[in-house]
Fold:
Amino acid sequence: MDEVFRALADPTRRAILDELTARSGQTLFELRVRLIENHGSGSSRQAVSQHLAVLQEAGLVVARREGRYTFLNLDTSPLEEFVRDVEQRWRPS
Amino acid sequence: MRIAYTSVFVQDQDRALEFYTGVLGFVKKVEVPLGEHRWLTVVSPEDPDGAELVLEPDEHPAARAFAAALVADGIPCTSFVVADARAEAARLAALGVVFTQPATVLGPVTTAVLDDTVGNLVQIQSVNP
Structure:
């Protein structure tokens, strides 16, 4: 659960999730162009790779190797448990 | 000074020529035997006197490593301008061309990225109307 909190805490990582929601299965190249075009975020390859590593730790992004290419897929299933946990934990009594 | 040539490293010159002419639609301009390989260029039929694309053997190990690293990240080695990237991507997909990025509107342009079958990704782009 800590990994999901951490993953969602950064605006660039939220922007990455926005773009993978628009289309899952992107190359790193497409993702970086989308971040620049749609979020004005000119993060370096290194920075985007680090953000992706955090998202992958949280299970929100899965890198799928297909032959010579690598595609980045969105997996929102960790969010279901996350939302449930937040609702139960801080629901006013 | 002007730009007359630009190169792509290709794994096989025959297959490259087949793809760049038969599928993408360029035409062969120069073919000169050069040792084991050839000086091989294609041009656009829309601009036959324009810049020539050299289909250059990827003989050097660094060229192969470079191309593979770009492909892994989905980065095109070059980009060609078309009238309508969406329509052109549909035409090429119907011919069996593999795309790593389908036609996508990105700011003022529409782009798509395809596999040239000889080691590279190539972008096509058009300016949105």
User: Anything to note?
Assistant: The longest strand of chain A covers residues 61-66.
